[in-house]
Write a structure and sequence with these properties.
The protein is mainly α. The protein is 59% helix and 6% strand. β1 and β2 form a beta hairpin. The chain is elongated.
Length: 196
């Protein structure tokens, strides 16, 4: 009687299959969608706004008096003056905000999505929506800082009234609209995913 040679057999258990599927799903969730052309165009618009703000600021800065008004009351009267170098705070802060939002755009998968059930099926759409909202916020922020910079420089040069600065509050409206649209989009996406 011949002994049959026993060949080792590899059995993949249910747990190992499940673990490999879970690892694949997690890696799919972490993959970021590619930037669309429209996103790249809007990114360029935001960058152009930043460059125009800096260019205008540097052009006007040398012609400013050494002491410039920095604080106004509701009537537009000057409350405080400071050295003109204080005005650099606006474009510098604008640039810092631009850089921070740009960094966040490249890591939407690192953000916390507590109110959303993030799945393999909706991750790319949510990441793209988050990136677009950050881009929208970046453009509105760039426009806000450009408006404040241009208006403040024209007030310092006595070409316009300080009361024009209060129109900057109107930039809150696009922020609120964008936030509401994003919230509704993600909420609807979350409902659709839960029904699968």
């Amino acid at each position: 009687m011949q002994q049959e040679e026993l060949q080792p057999t590899i059995h993949i258990g249910e747990n190992e299959r499940r673990n490999s599927r879970e690892e694949e799903m997690v890696s799919n969730i972490k993959k970021l969608p590619r930037f669309k052309k429209l996103e790249i165009v809007f990114e360029m618009i935001a960058l152009v706004i930043l460059i125009v703000t800096w260019t205008y600021f540097n052009k006007i800065f040398n012609d400013l008096p050494q002491q410039v008004p920095t604080d106004f009351d509701f009537g537009g009267e000057v409350q405080r003056k400071a050295d003109k170098n204080f005005l650099y705070a606006l474009p510098v802060f604008d640039t810092i905000v631009y850089i921070l939002i740009t960094i966040l755009q490249f890591v939407p998968h690192k953000l916390k999505y507590d109110c959303i059930r993030l799945t393999v099926f909706n991750a790319h759409n949510i990441y793209r929506a988050t990136r677009i909202v950050m881009l929208y916020i970046k453009i509105i922020t760039e426009l806000l800082f450009a408006y404040i910079t241009f208006t403040l420089l024209s007030v310092v040069q006595m070409q316009s009234s300080a009361q024009n600065m209060y129109f900057a509050f109107l930039f809150i409206i696009p922020f609120l609209i964008g936030s509401y649209v994003y919230y509704r989009y993600v909420k609807n996406m979350n409902i659709d995913t839960c029904q699968m």
